[in-house]
Amino acid sequence: MKTFLLFLCLMPGLAWQNARAQDSSASVFCVVPLGVKGGSDESNLSAYLVSAQGSRDFICLDAGTLYAGIRRAVENGVFTDSPDAVLKKYIHAYFISHPHLDHVAGLIMNSPEDAGKNIYGLPFCLDILKSTYFTWKGWANFADEGEAPALGKYHYVRMIPGADTEVPGTPLRVTAFPLSHGSPFQSTAFLVNLRGQYLLYLGDTGADRVEKSDNLHRLWMAVAPLVMQKRLKAIFMEVSFPDEQPEKQLFGHLTPRLAMEEMEDLERISGPGTLKGLSLVITHIKPIGGNEIKIKQQLRSQNNHSLQFIFPEQAVALRF
Ligand SMILES: [Zn+2]
Ligand SMILES: [Zn+2]
Fold first, then answer.
1. Ligand in closest contact with the CA of 187
2. Which of 75, 196, 245, 251 could be bridged to 241 by S-S, CB 3.0 to 4.6 A?
3. Residue ranges near ligand 2 (ion) with Cβ within 5 Å
4. pLDDT single digits (tens) 231-276
5. Which of 178, 176, 194, 195 is nearest to 186 (CA)?
6. Hey, which CATH number is domain 2-319, 3.60.15.10, 3.10.20.30, 3.40.50.1460, 3.30.450.20?
7. Does residue 119 sit in helix, strand or coil?
8. What's the gap in Å between 172 CA and the centre of ligand 1?
9. What is the per-residue DSSP string for 38-103?
10. Distance, CA 38 to ligand 1 centroid (Å)?
11. What 3-state DSSP class applies to 118?
């Protein structure tokens, strides 16, 4: 199995979307999106498997959709095992950005069939999983804290902002950063470290200016040195609405203009020209009306930093 995955990771194929200017030999991360959208279609909501290139030891960043995405990935030839085996054996841990249903529904619904593993998150997020879903009222308590009897399949691991955590069974280390998601509601960004190469995943977030926050500015301060050193391989960032959405009705989300405002801030810290060619993976588009086409056009027309936009597709693996 490892050999086959390695083969897939090294050979451009139908199920692989290549980041431009990064040949496969230079890639370090494999990402398999299990769900990419920000609403409506419950079979395709935020969830991204991340592993070292050539390895089947994944973490799962958010878990809005699990099984439907795994099944499609198997159909696409990304995995040759059964969906059940991928769910139980390939996913070593979940990292949940915030407890909105479009980020946790797949985890909750698949918990009876899943194997035991850790759920990582900031305390606010895990406390809501504990008090709202795994309660016996919302769903059986498959975790190891909360309403008795706690079945103990999942272990909550509370992350400390800015402190990195190793993930047993993988070579990955992950650091959490708080985000503002329609103040006072919170969300989380996860910085994944694989032997000194990095990938940054942002859960749902508003722009600092709109949220009256400095969470994103602090995040950009933390990752700017990695951008300068070309060690940040990709940023996964949400763009939920097109620019026509009034700022008062963003509910803690980004538009293309606001996403580019934030990239402007990052470049102010990391230096002129440092974002050139950086992969910006656009997540969480709300698939209403013609939003998807509009958002793509608006991003491309405001790309003042020569970023490389990537629009992920469910069950089409990416490498960085
Ligand atoms: Zn949300
Ligand atoms: Zn969401």
1. 1
2. 245
3. 100, 102, 204
4. 999 999 999 999 999 999 999 999 999 999 999 999 999 999 999 9
5. 178
6. 3.60.15.10
7. strand
8. 25
9. SSS-TTSBSEEEEEETT---EEEE--S--HHHHHHHHHTTS--S-HHHIIIIIEEEEE-S---HHH
10. 9
11. strand
Find where tokens 């009897």 sit: 149
pTM: 0.94
pLDDT tens digit sequence for 158-180: 999 999 999 999 999 999 999 99
Q: Say if residue 156's pLDDT is above 80.
A: yes
Q: Which ligand is nearest to the CA of 99?
A: 1
Residues with CB under 5 A from ligand 1 (ion): 100, 204
Q: Which two tokens stand for residue 10?
A: 């090294």
The answer, yes or no, to whether residue 7 has pLDDT greater than 50, is no
Write out the two tokens for 56. Answer: 């089947």
Q: Tens digits of per-residue pLDDT, 276-295?
A: 999 999 999 999 888 999 99
- List the structure tokens of 115: 């194997």
On the CB side of 260, how many CA atoms lie within 13 Å of its CA? 19
State in Å: Cα 257 to ligand 2 middle. 19
| Positive or negative: CA dihedral 270, 282, 259, 50 | negative
Cα of 183 from ligand 2 centre, angstroms: 15
Given pLDDT bands bounded at 50, 70 and 90, which one contains residue 25? low
Question: Can you tell me the distance from the alpha carbon of 111 to that of 214, in angstroms, rounded to the nearest whole number?
Answer: 36
- DSSP state letter for 247: G
Cα 12 to ligand 2 centroid, rounded to whole Å = 31
